[in-house]
TrEMBL record:
InterPro entries: FAD/NAD-bd_sf. SUPFAM superfamilies: FAD/NAD(P)-binding domain (SSF51905). This is Phytoene dehydrogenase-related protein.
Amino acid sequence: MSDAVVVGSGPNGLAAAVALAQRGFGVTVLEAADEAGGGARSAELTLPGLLHDQCSAVHPTGCGSPFFHSLGLERHGVAWSWPEVDLAHPLDSGSAGVLRRSLEDTARGLGVDGRAWRAVFGRPAAGFDALAEDLFRPVAHLPKHPVQLANFGMRALLPATGLARAWRSDEARALFAGIAAHAFYPLNRPVSAAIGTMLTAAGHRYGWPVARGGSQSIVDALVALLAEHGGVVETGRPVHRYADLPPSDVLLLDLDPAAAVRILGPQLPARVRRAYTRYRRGPGAYKVDLAVQGGIPWRNEDCRKAGTVHVGGTLEEVARAERDVYRGTMPERPFVLVAQQYLADPQRSSGDVHPVWTYAHVPHGYEGDATEAVLRQIERFAPGVRERILGTFVRSAPEMARYNANYIGGDIATGANTPVQSVLRPRVAVDPYATGVPGVFLCSAATPPGPGVHGMCGYNAALSALRYHARHA
Protein backbone atom coordinates (compact mmCIF):
# COMPACT_ATOMS: atom_id res chain seq x y z
CA MET A 1 0.00 0.00 0.00
CA SER A 2 1.19 3.53 -0.78
CA ASP A 3 1.25 5.98 2.11
CA ALA A 4 0.22 9.63 2.25
CA VAL A 5 0.65 12.19 5.00
CA VAL A 6 -1.53 15.29 5.19
CA VAL A 7 -0.53 18.17 7.49
CA GLY A 8 -3.58 20.11 8.65
CA SER A 9 -7.14 18.88 9.18
CA GLY A 10 -9.16 21.77 7.82
CA PRO A 11 -11.80 20.92 5.20
CA ASN A 12 -9.19 20.99 2.44
CA GLY A 13 -6.74 18.75 4.26
CA LEU A 14 -9.51 16.28 5.07
CA ALA A 15 -10.84 16.41 1.49
CA ALA A 16 -7.36 15.58 0.18
CA ALA A 17 -7.05 12.77 2.72
CA VAL A 18 -10.42 11.27 1.75
CA ALA A 19 -9.65 11.49 -1.98
CA LEU A 20 -6.36 9.63 -1.48
CA ALA A 21 -7.83 7.06 0.90
CA GLN A 22 -10.60 6.31 -1.60
CA ARG A 23 -7.88 5.33 -4.06
CA GLY A 24 -6.17 2.91 -1.74
CA PHE A 25 -3.60 5.05 0.05
CA GLY A 26 -2.91 4.61 3.71
CA VAL A 27 -3.48 8.15 4.97
CA THR A 28 -2.37 9.84 8.18
CA VAL A 29 -3.52 13.39 8.91
CA LEU A 30 -1.43 15.37 11.41
CA GLU A 31 -3.21 18.23 13.20
CA ALA A 32 -1.48 20.64 15.59
CA ALA A 33 -4.68 21.53 17.46
CA ASP A 34 -6.46 19.27 19.91
CA GLU A 35 -9.38 18.77 17.53
CA ALA A 36 -9.80 18.48 13.79
CA GLY A 37 -11.51 21.08 11.65
CA GLY A 38 -9.39 24.17 11.06
CA GLY A 39 -11.80 27.00 10.23
CA ALA A 40 -14.88 24.76 10.39
CA ARG A 41 -15.03 24.06 14.13
CA SER A 42 -18.00 24.80 16.40
CA ALA A 43 -18.17 25.33 20.16
CA GLU A 44 -20.06 26.92 23.05
CA LEU A 45 -18.37 30.33 23.16
CA THR A 46 -20.73 32.68 25.00
CA LEU A 47 -23.17 30.84 27.28
CA PRO A 48 -23.73 27.13 28.02
CA GLY A 49 -26.05 25.51 25.51
CA LEU A 50 -25.42 28.02 22.70
CA LEU A 51 -23.54 26.57 19.73
CA HIS A 52 -21.35 29.00 17.73
CA ASP A 53 -19.38 28.40 14.55
CA GLN A 54 -15.82 29.50 15.26
CA CYS A 55 -15.07 30.77 11.74
CA SER A 56 -16.88 29.48 8.66
CA ALA A 57 -20.62 29.61 9.18
CA VAL A 58 -22.77 29.71 6.01
CA HIS A 59 -22.12 27.37 3.09
CA PRO A 60 -23.37 28.21 -0.42
CA THR A 61 -20.21 26.70 -1.95
CA GLY A 62 -20.14 23.77 0.49
CA CYS A 63 -23.64 22.77 -0.50
CA GLY A 64 -22.63 23.27 -4.15
CA SER A 65 -19.21 21.58 -3.99
CA PRO A 66 -18.72 18.97 -6.75
CA PHE A 67 -16.46 16.87 -4.50
CA PHE A 68 -18.77 17.01 -1.50
CA HIS A 69 -21.64 15.96 -3.77
CA SER A 70 -19.68 12.86 -4.76
CA LEU A 71 -19.08 11.80 -1.15
CA GLY A 72 -22.62 11.43 0.15
CA LEU A 73 -21.82 13.35 3.32
CA GLU A 74 -25.44 12.96 4.36
CA ARG A 75 -24.69 9.33 5.28
CA HIS A 76 -22.34 10.66 7.95
CA GLY A 77 -24.61 13.29 9.42
CA VAL A 78 -24.36 16.39 7.23
CA ALA A 79 -27.78 18.00 6.84
CA TRP A 80 -28.17 21.38 5.15
CA SER A 81 -30.77 23.75 6.57
CA TRP A 82 -32.13 26.95 5.03
CA PRO A 83 -33.61 30.03 6.69
CA GLU A 84 -36.74 31.66 5.30
CA VAL A 85 -34.58 34.44 3.83
CA ASP A 86 -31.06 33.60 2.68
CA LEU A 87 -29.51 37.08 2.89
CA ALA A 88 -30.57 40.63 3.69
CA HIS A 89 -28.70 43.94 3.51
CA PRO A 90 -30.42 46.70 5.50
CA LEU A 91 -30.31 50.43 4.73
CA ASP A 92 -30.91 53.44 6.98
CA SER A 93 -34.29 54.03 5.33
CA GLY A 94 -35.56 50.78 6.89
CA SER A 95 -35.62 48.97 3.56
CA ALA A 96 -33.26 46.13 2.60
CA GLY A 97 -31.87 44.36 -0.41
CA VAL A 98 -32.97 40.72 -0.08
CA LEU A 99 -31.50 37.59 -1.68
CA ARG A 100 -33.66 34.49 -1.79
CA ARG A 101 -32.73 31.15 -3.27
CA SER A 102 -35.39 31.72 -5.92
CA LEU A 103 -34.08 34.05 -8.60
CA GLU A 104 -37.63 35.04 -9.50
CA ASP A 105 -38.58 35.87 -5.91
CA THR A 106 -35.42 37.93 -5.53
CA ALA A 107 -36.10 39.79 -8.76
CA ARG A 108 -39.68 40.57 -7.71
CA GLY A 109 -38.45 41.89 -4.38
CA LEU A 110 -36.00 44.24 -6.10
CA GLY A 111 -38.81 45.93 -8.02
CA VAL A 112 -37.41 48.26 -10.69
CA ASP A 113 -34.13 46.35 -10.69
CA GLY A 114 -35.63 42.87 -10.91
CA ARG A 115 -35.22 42.53 -14.64
CA ALA A 116 -31.60 43.65 -14.56
CA TRP A 117 -30.83 41.32 -11.64
CA ARG A 118 -32.31 38.44 -13.61
CA ALA A 119 -30.28 39.42 -16.67
CA VAL A 120 -26.98 39.48 -14.75
CA PHE A 121 -27.41 36.33 -12.67
CA GLY A 122 -29.93 34.20 -14.56
CA ARG A 123 -27.45 32.28 -16.72
CA PRO A 124 -24.73 31.80 -14.07
CA ALA A 125 -27.34 30.55 -11.59
CA ALA A 126 -29.06 28.20 -14.03
CA GLY A 127 -25.73 26.78 -15.17
CA PHE A 128 -23.96 26.88 -11.81
CA ASP A 129 -23.26 23.15 -11.60
CA ALA A 130 -21.55 23.19 -15.00
CA LEU A 131 -19.81 26.45 -14.16
CA ALA A 132 -18.50 25.03 -10.88
CA GLU A 133 -16.71 22.26 -12.76
CA ASP A 134 -14.49 24.96 -14.28
CA LEU A 135 -14.45 27.61 -11.52
CA PHE A 136 -13.38 25.10 -8.88
CA ARG A 137 -10.34 23.98 -10.88
CA PRO A 138 -6.96 25.64 -11.60
CA VAL A 139 -7.00 28.30 -14.30
CA ALA A 140 -4.65 26.24 -16.52
CA HIS A 141 -7.09 23.61 -17.72
CA LEU A 142 -9.19 22.87 -20.77
CA PRO A 143 -12.66 24.24 -19.90
CA LYS A 144 -15.45 21.69 -19.85
CA HIS A 145 -18.06 24.40 -20.38
CA PRO A 146 -16.36 27.26 -22.27
CA VAL A 147 -19.57 29.15 -23.09
CA GLN A 148 -20.71 29.30 -19.47
CA LEU A 149 -17.20 30.20 -18.33
CA ALA A 150 -16.93 33.02 -20.87
CA ASN A 151 -20.33 34.37 -19.83
CA PHE A 152 -19.24 34.35 -16.19
CA GLY A 153 -15.90 35.95 -17.05
CA MET A 154 -17.56 38.94 -18.70
CA ARG A 155 -18.99 39.88 -15.32
CA ALA A 156 -16.23 38.59 -13.05
CA LEU A 157 -13.45 40.65 -14.61
CA LEU A 158 -15.25 43.92 -13.82
CA PRO A 159 -14.88 45.99 -10.66
CA ALA A 160 -17.82 45.29 -8.37
CA THR A 161 -18.73 48.98 -8.49
CA GLY A 162 -18.79 48.75 -12.29
CA LEU A 163 -21.09 45.73 -12.39
CA ALA A 164 -23.35 47.44 -9.84
CA ARG A 165 -24.17 50.09 -12.43
CA ALA A 166 -26.58 47.52 -13.85
CA TRP A 167 -28.97 48.49 -11.01
CA ARG A 168 -30.57 51.78 -10.05
CA SER A 169 -31.87 51.23 -6.53
CA ASP A 170 -29.78 51.47 -3.39
CA GLU A 171 -31.21 48.12 -2.30
CA ALA A 172 -29.94 46.14 -5.31
CA ARG A 173 -26.60 47.94 -5.42
CA ALA A 174 -25.98 47.45 -1.69
CA LEU A 175 -27.07 43.81 -1.87
CA PHE A 176 -24.42 43.04 -4.47
CA ALA A 177 -21.79 45.19 -2.74
CA GLY A 178 -22.14 43.18 0.46
CA ILE A 179 -21.76 39.88 -1.39
CA ALA A 180 -18.77 41.17 -3.35
CA ALA A 181 -17.15 42.35 -0.11
CA HIS A 182 -16.56 38.70 0.81
CA ALA A 183 -13.43 39.11 -1.31
CA PHE A 184 -11.80 41.40 1.30
CA TYR A 185 -10.68 43.57 -1.63
CA PRO A 186 -11.48 47.13 -2.81
CA LEU A 187 -14.70 47.05 -4.82
CA ASN A 188 -13.44 49.52 -7.43
CA ARG A 189 -10.58 47.27 -8.55
CA PRO A 190 -10.71 44.91 -11.55
CA VAL A 191 -11.92 41.35 -10.85
CA SER A 192 -13.55 42.43 -7.56
CA ALA A 193 -16.91 41.37 -9.02
CA ALA A 194 -15.79 37.74 -9.36
CA ILE A 195 -16.47 36.42 -5.86
CA GLY A 196 -19.72 38.40 -5.61
CA THR A 197 -20.94 36.99 -8.92
CA MET A 198 -20.00 33.43 -7.97
CA LEU A 199 -21.59 33.62 -4.50
CA THR A 200 -24.77 35.19 -5.88
CA ALA A 201 -25.07 32.50 -8.57
CA ALA A 202 -24.39 29.80 -5.95
CA GLY A 203 -27.04 31.38 -3.73
CA HIS A 204 -29.66 31.21 -6.45
CA ARG A 205 -28.76 27.58 -7.17
CA TYR A 206 -28.24 26.25 -3.63
CA GLY A 207 -29.24 29.07 -1.29
CA TRP A 208 -27.05 30.13 1.64
CA PRO A 209 -27.60 27.17 3.99
CA VAL A 210 -25.99 26.22 7.30
CA ALA A 211 -24.89 22.77 8.43
CA ARG A 212 -27.28 21.45 11.06
CA GLY A 213 -25.44 21.02 14.34
CA GLY A 214 -22.71 23.49 13.36
CA SER A 215 -20.00 23.62 10.70
CA GLN A 216 -18.19 21.02 12.81
CA SER A 217 -20.63 18.44 11.41
CA ILE A 218 -18.98 18.79 7.97
CA VAL A 219 -15.59 18.05 9.53
CA ASP A 220 -16.98 15.14 11.55
CA ALA A 221 -18.43 13.62 8.37
CA LEU A 222 -15.11 13.92 6.53
CA VAL A 223 -13.25 12.33 9.47
CA ALA A 224 -15.78 9.48 9.52
CA LEU A 225 -15.40 8.96 5.77
CA LEU A 226 -11.63 8.90 6.13
CA ALA A 227 -11.85 6.30 8.89
CA GLU A 228 -14.20 4.24 6.70
CA HIS A 229 -11.32 3.97 4.21
CA GLY A 230 -8.72 3.21 6.86
CA GLY A 231 -7.29 6.71 7.33
CA VAL A 232 -6.54 8.30 10.69
CA VAL A 233 -6.36 11.81 12.14
CA GLU A 234 -3.77 12.43 14.86
CA THR A 235 -4.47 15.62 16.81
CA GLY A 236 -1.96 17.43 19.00
CA ARG A 237 0.72 16.73 16.38
CA PRO A 238 2.38 20.02 15.33
CA VAL A 239 4.87 19.86 12.48
CA HIS A 240 7.74 22.34 12.69
CA ARG A 241 10.34 20.72 10.42
CA TYR A 242 10.44 18.22 7.60
CA ALA A 243 12.20 15.86 10.01
CA ASP A 244 9.04 15.78 12.16
CA LEU A 245 7.17 13.94 9.40
CA PRO A 246 6.83 10.17 9.05
CA PRO A 247 7.97 8.69 5.72
CA SER A 248 5.38 8.74 2.93
CA ASP A 249 5.00 8.44 -0.81
CA VAL A 250 3.18 11.78 -1.05
CA LEU A 251 2.87 14.70 1.37
CA LEU A 252 0.11 17.31 1.27
CA LEU A 253 0.22 20.53 3.26
CA ASP A 254 -3.04 22.23 4.24
CA LEU A 255 -0.95 25.24 5.24
CA ASP A 256 -0.20 28.85 4.39
CA PRO A 257 2.76 29.20 1.97
CA ALA A 258 4.90 30.69 4.76
CA ALA A 259 4.49 27.49 6.78
CA ALA A 260 5.46 25.44 3.73
CA VAL A 261 8.67 27.49 3.49
CA ARG A 262 9.41 26.90 7.16
CA ILE A 263 8.78 23.15 7.06
CA LEU A 264 10.38 22.33 3.71
CA GLY A 265 13.37 24.60 4.29
CA PRO A 266 16.30 24.15 1.89
CA GLN A 267 14.50 21.38 -0.02
CA LEU A 268 12.21 24.00 -1.52
CA PRO A 269 13.51 25.27 -4.89
CA ALA A 270 14.66 28.89 -4.73
CA ARG A 271 12.09 30.09 -7.30
CA VAL A 272 9.23 28.56 -5.31
CA ARG A 273 10.58 29.90 -2.02
CA ARG A 274 10.66 33.40 -3.53
CA ALA A 275 7.09 33.06 -4.79
CA TYR A 276 5.80 31.76 -1.46
CA THR A 277 7.66 34.49 0.41
CA ARG A 278 6.14 37.16 -1.83
CA TYR A 279 2.63 35.74 -1.42
CA ARG A 280 0.38 38.61 -0.35
CA ARG A 281 -1.96 38.49 2.64
CA GLY A 282 -5.31 40.22 2.82
CA PRO A 283 -7.15 42.19 5.51
CA GLY A 284 -8.17 40.60 8.78
CA ALA A 285 -11.37 39.51 10.46
CA TYR A 286 -12.42 40.66 13.94
CA LYS A 287 -14.95 38.20 15.33
CA VAL A 288 -17.64 38.99 17.90
CA ASP A 289 -20.01 36.22 19.00
CA LEU A 290 -23.14 37.23 20.90
CA ALA A 291 -25.76 35.57 23.05
CA VAL A 292 -28.94 37.54 22.35
CA GLN A 293 -32.23 37.29 24.21
CA GLY A 294 -35.02 37.06 21.67
CA GLY A 295 -32.69 37.63 18.70
CA ILE A 296 -31.58 40.90 17.09
CA PRO A 297 -34.43 43.44 16.83
CA TRP A 298 -33.79 44.50 13.24
CA ARG A 299 -36.01 47.32 12.00
CA ASN A 300 -36.44 45.50 8.71
CA GLU A 301 -38.64 42.42 8.91
CA ASP A 302 -36.69 40.48 6.26
CA CYS A 303 -33.52 40.88 8.33
CA ARG A 304 -35.29 39.15 11.23
CA LYS A 305 -35.84 36.14 8.96
CA ALA A 306 -32.42 36.14 7.25
CA GLY A 307 -29.75 33.57 7.97
CA THR A 308 -27.12 36.11 6.88
CA VAL A 309 -27.25 39.89 7.23
CA HIS A 310 -24.65 42.18 5.67
CA VAL A 311 -24.27 45.36 7.70
CA GLY A 312 -22.56 48.23 5.94
CA GLY A 313 -25.07 50.64 4.44
CA THR A 314 -25.02 51.69 0.81
CA LEU A 315 -22.69 50.44 -1.90
CA GLU A 316 -20.66 53.62 -1.52
CA GLU A 317 -20.26 53.07 2.23
CA VAL A 318 -19.23 49.43 1.80
CA ALA A 319 -16.76 50.36 -0.94
CA ARG A 320 -15.25 53.09 1.23
CA ALA A 321 -14.86 50.77 4.21
CA GLU A 322 -13.25 48.03 2.11
CA ARG A 323 -10.86 50.55 0.54
CA ASP A 324 -9.80 51.85 3.95
CA VAL A 325 -9.29 48.39 5.41
CA TYR A 326 -7.17 47.31 2.45
CA ARG A 327 -5.02 50.43 2.89
CA GLY A 328 -4.52 49.62 6.57
CA THR A 329 -6.94 52.18 8.07
CA MET A 330 -9.63 51.06 10.49
CA PRO A 331 -12.95 52.58 9.30
CA GLU A 332 -15.37 54.12 11.76
CA ARG A 333 -18.14 52.11 10.09
CA PRO A 334 -16.63 48.74 9.08
CA PHE A 335 -18.39 46.17 6.94
CA VAL A 336 -19.89 43.60 9.33
CA LEU A 337 -21.22 40.14 8.51
CA VAL A 338 -23.90 38.73 10.79
CA ALA A 339 -25.10 35.11 10.75
CA GLN A 340 -28.27 34.01 12.52
CA GLN A 341 -27.82 30.28 11.96
CA TYR A 342 -30.35 29.39 14.65
CA LEU A 343 -33.16 30.51 12.32
CA ALA A 344 -32.42 27.46 10.16
CA ASP A 345 -31.04 25.31 12.98
CA PRO A 346 -32.96 25.99 16.23
CA GLN A 347 -30.99 23.38 18.20
CA ARG A 348 -28.14 25.90 18.43
CA SER A 349 -30.20 28.05 20.82
CA SER A 350 -31.14 27.66 24.47
CA GLY A 351 -34.79 28.58 24.86
CA ASP A 352 -35.21 32.19 23.75
CA VAL A 353 -31.47 32.95 23.95
CA HIS A 354 -29.83 32.70 20.55
CA PRO A 355 -26.22 32.53 19.29
CA VAL A 356 -25.36 35.32 16.84
CA TRP A 357 -22.14 35.12 14.80
CA THR A 358 -20.50 38.31 13.55
CA TYR A 359 -17.21 39.55 12.24
CA ALA A 360 -15.94 42.84 10.87
CA HIS A 361 -13.38 43.45 8.15
CA VAL A 362 -10.35 45.13 9.74
CA PRO A 363 -6.81 45.93 8.54
CA HIS A 364 -4.33 43.09 8.36
CA GLY A 365 -3.00 42.35 11.84
CA TYR A 366 -5.21 45.03 13.45
CA GLU A 367 -4.43 45.03 17.18
CA GLY A 368 -7.13 47.45 18.30
CA ASP A 369 -10.52 46.75 19.85
CA ALA A 370 -13.24 46.81 17.17
CA THR A 371 -16.02 45.44 19.38
CA GLU A 372 -17.71 48.81 19.84
CA ALA A 373 -17.55 49.53 16.10
CA VAL A 374 -19.24 46.19 15.39
CA LEU A 375 -22.01 46.81 17.93
CA ARG A 376 -22.58 50.37 16.67
CA GLN A 377 -23.05 49.10 13.14
CA ILE A 378 -25.57 46.47 14.23
CA GLU A 379 -27.41 48.90 16.50
CA ARG A 380 -27.63 51.34 13.59
CA PHE A 381 -30.11 48.94 11.95
CA ALA A 382 -31.39 47.24 15.11
CA PRO A 383 -31.99 49.82 17.86
CA GLY A 384 -32.09 48.31 21.33
CA VAL A 385 -29.91 45.32 20.52
CA ARG A 386 -27.45 46.06 23.34
CA GLU A 387 -30.14 45.56 25.97
CA ARG A 388 -30.66 42.02 24.69
CA ILE A 389 -27.02 40.88 24.75
CA LEU A 390 -26.39 38.40 27.58
CA GLY A 391 -22.93 37.20 26.60
CA THR A 392 -20.04 38.13 24.30
CA PHE A 393 -16.98 36.32 22.99
CA VAL A 394 -14.36 38.30 21.05
CA ARG A 395 -11.52 37.05 18.84
CA SER A 396 -9.32 39.80 17.39
CA ALA A 397 -7.34 39.57 14.15
CA PRO A 398 -4.13 38.44 15.96
CA GLU A 399 -6.19 35.97 17.98
CA MET A 400 -7.68 34.57 14.77
CA ALA A 401 -4.11 33.69 13.77
CA ARG A 402 -3.60 31.92 17.10
CA TYR A 403 -6.84 30.01 16.59
CA ASN A 404 -5.73 28.91 13.10
CA ALA A 405 -2.10 29.41 12.05
CA ASN A 406 -3.16 29.76 8.40
CA TYR A 407 -4.99 33.00 9.27
CA ILE A 408 -1.90 35.20 9.38
CA GLY A 409 -2.86 38.69 10.58
CA GLY A 410 -6.48 37.55 10.81
CA ASP A 411 -6.61 36.84 7.06
CA ILE A 412 -9.27 34.12 7.01
CA ALA A 413 -9.14 34.00 3.18
CA THR A 414 -5.52 32.76 3.35
CA GLY A 415 -4.28 35.37 0.89
CA ALA A 416 -5.25 38.64 -0.74
CA ASN A 417 -7.72 38.38 -3.62
CA THR A 418 -5.75 40.58 -5.98
CA PRO A 419 -6.43 40.06 -9.69
CA VAL A 420 -3.31 37.88 -9.99
CA GLN A 421 -3.82 35.88 -6.81
CA SER A 422 -7.50 35.38 -7.52
CA VAL A 423 -6.61 33.15 -10.47
CA LEU A 424 -2.93 32.27 -10.00
CA ARG A 425 -2.56 31.58 -6.30
CA PRO A 426 -0.13 30.74 -4.73
CA ARG A 427 2.27 31.25 -7.66
CA VAL A 428 2.39 31.24 -11.45
CA ALA A 429 2.68 27.54 -12.32
CA VAL A 430 1.05 24.94 -14.56
CA ASP A 431 0.40 22.91 -11.41
CA PRO A 432 -0.27 25.40 -8.60
CA TYR A 433 -0.39 22.60 -5.99
CA ALA A 434 3.13 21.33 -6.69
CA THR A 435 5.79 22.78 -4.39
CA GLY A 436 8.77 21.79 -6.51
CA VAL A 437 9.76 19.22 -3.88
CA PRO A 438 9.12 15.74 -5.32
CA GLY A 439 5.92 14.28 -3.96
CA VAL A 440 5.00 17.35 -1.87
CA PHE A 441 1.88 19.41 -2.61
CA LEU A 442 0.12 22.46 -1.14
CA CYS A 443 -3.63 21.96 -0.62
CA SER A 444 -4.78 24.93 1.50
CA ALA A 445 -7.07 27.84 0.57
CA ALA A 446 -3.90 29.51 -0.77
CA THR A 447 -4.42 27.27 -3.83
CA PRO A 448 -7.25 27.28 -6.41
CA PRO A 449 -10.15 27.77 -6.12
CA GLY A 450 -9.45 29.65 -2.88
CA PRO A 451 -11.37 30.13 0.38
CA GLY A 452 -14.59 28.46 1.41
CA VAL A 453 -15.65 25.17 2.97
CA HIS A 454 -15.90 23.23 -0.29
CA GLY A 455 -12.87 20.93 -0.12
CA MET A 456 -11.95 21.58 -3.74
CA CYS A 457 -8.43 22.85 -3.01
CA GLY A 458 -7.70 19.58 -1.23
CA TYR A 459 -9.39 17.44 -3.86
CA ASN A 460 -7.51 19.13 -6.71
CA ALA A 461 -4.20 18.79 -4.87
CA ALA A 462 -4.92 15.10 -4.28
CA LEU A 463 -5.41 14.64 -8.03
CA SER A 464 -2.00 16.25 -8.61
CA ALA A 465 -0.46 13.91 -6.03
CA LEU A 466 -2.08 10.90 -7.70
CA ARG A 467 -0.71 11.90 -11.10
CA TYR A 468 2.75 12.29 -9.59
CA HIS A 469 2.53 8.93 -7.87
CA ALA A 470 1.37 7.17 -11.06
CA ARG A 471 4.43 8.51 -12.88
CA HIS A 472 6.89 7.50 -10.17
CA ALA A 473 5.40 4.31 -8.71
